[in-house]
Please model this.
Amino acid sequence: MEDKKQKIIMFMREDAYKPLLFDELVSVLEVPKSDIAQFKQIVDELESEGFIFKTKKDRYGVPERMNLIAGYLQGNERGYGFVVADDDTNDIFIPADSLSGAMHNDRVIARINKNAIGGKRSEGEIIKIVKRANETIIGTYESSKHFGFVIPDDRRISGDIFIPKDEINGAVSGQKVTAKILVWPKQRRNAEGRIVEIIGDKNEPGTDILSIIKSYNLKEDFPEEVIKEAQIVGQSVTEEMIKGRRDIRHIQMVTIDGEDAKDLDDAVSIEKLSNGNYRLGVHIADVAYYVTENSQLDKEASKRCTSVYLVDRVIPMLPRELSNGICSLNPHIDRLAFSVMMEVDSSGKVVDHDIFESVININERMTYTNVYKILAEDDDNLKKQYEYLLNDFSLMQELAMILRKKRLDRGAIDFDFDEAKVILDEKGIPVEVKKYETTIANRIIEEFMLLCNETVSEHFFWTNTPFLYRVHEEPDQEKIETFCEFVYNLGYTIKGVNKIHPKSLQNLLEKAKGKKEEAIISTVMLRSLKKARYSHINHGHFGLAAKYYSHFTSPIRRYPDLIIHRIMKDFLKGKINPEKENWLNEWLPEISKLCSERERAAEEAERETEDLKKVEYMKKYEGEIFEGIISGVTSFGMFVELENTIEGLVRMSSMEDDYYVFNEKQYCLIGERTRKVYRIGNVVKVMLARADIGSRQIEFVLSESKDTIEEDNGVVDRPKHKSRKKIDEAVLLHVKGKKKKKRSKGET
Model:
């Protein structure tokens, strides 16, 4: 079916194709009479999915040949939106009055009314809503005398949801609720809905995170039938289970994870061979042995697709009996694994490899912190405790540095963004926000997993077996040209723009390293690249500069890895017959799309909970002055990042010492009178004017510092926390969009 769909789409994309009626399509494509019903079903599905478009005169064609764009609507809290094309090459600006009732994340077709000119995007209007994305809305209920309305938590959903009086179902003002949409919005008319769940009072502890969980359709609890199936699984490895596996319990190996990790997917082993090469073993939990195809556990995992790591909890893909129990590679007990043994030479090349099912017994459960202390800090106590592993750790560090050098030399792009770690107390209140440090211990595991994933992917690519790849396609030419112009204005050039190689981008990052523009170059570069996704077709991985790449190393928390394990097992046991191949070719495109979508939802939920707790943390510091670095400049202001990675906005409207103009090419704000220049990388002093928990936004105002921001302001020390200062009432009101009331006579 999928193959037939692709053939129809490719036929309609041909230059000679003109929109045809259904009967004409049947005739031109010589569809047999016996297949017309199925052909009609395929055409209808393609139309309902938005891949082809039927005109008012019942003629079929692909949207891009009709001045149309098919994609997903990305809403904006200001009311307008963007249609992001399926191929991720274009996004079309949609004014608020041209949304035609479409909501954030709806699949739509848009007509282009104005083509892109200069740096401006194309502009258009929604002409068809293909598929609705939001059957329910999470938000805050507010009541009126005769009706109520729900204000969506997701500000990208513009317009409140009208709730008739007889659909309120006991909700009261200020409660977080779930509203089911009964009537979709239309032009100048809000959506209408019914309250189907009361989550809790918006100020009640835990309600905020619970609202985010529900808004992304994440499920903490497992269905009863799934729990029952998980409980049946034994928690020990028996002699019967070991039959047919390679017994490598004698090989010394360790897991290396964070202190709070409980789902341990991977273990590593290493030795130096007599020929000077390394034998690296990567041993992955054999989840596929326990989660069998079409079982209740498998069906639930295929819906979740991924574990979600929120700031205060983990929502696992598999029940804890498996994720933290029998599947987790805990030390000193037998575990079933899928092992990849690789012989790696001194240049980092894999000269031989072996893939097999195994039984293992982990020697130690190590943490990143302790391995770092052994390797970097020469901690005597830890070295004594793990004396028998010291040679292994030394070899691991040695090999990891070889692999990293090889990867960077071939052009892999290595972004160096600061990550935050939010520390919560037992009540879920944030008590600290700090940078998450990446150490040599993290690098060891990262490099070993990358090499293993590449080795597995390349091996199965050449077997011509249906497979699931992790792909990152080459960036769109237009976006790269725009990025090149941007960095040129910062004094940098990029080679080979017409056929960009990742090495050119990595070289640019190296040139900018340690300079004030490093952060903005990294950020804009990342936005210029496509997003990595799952696919049944190997397109290579641009960011890693890898021809073959797949996700194999985390089957406890990623469904694509579990799929790959099953395919690998079937291949190794000779079970990939023509019937199985056909089924995989039909199923893999569908499941790869779902896995990509659930991955994006998980990432957004994780980011939202982190942003929420950051704002909660900063709330108590309103009125205090901080030092930060300008991390972004826009037409409406500039973003300032503090040392702890927390970022806030300085609105241009609050910069009252001058009228500032946004220079789009230089990414800076320039004062018309003073000629002050605020650019990426400048250090500024700001006062925290507002930490708005409801909108999850932090707003700064420039403090009354007399320091002048010059155009050539260099990099100085990292931002530091400064003293407390009382907020001027007029400033606060200005930030909040209100005017200060005039005092009446007699007031002092």
Observations:
- The chain has a mean pLDDT of 88.
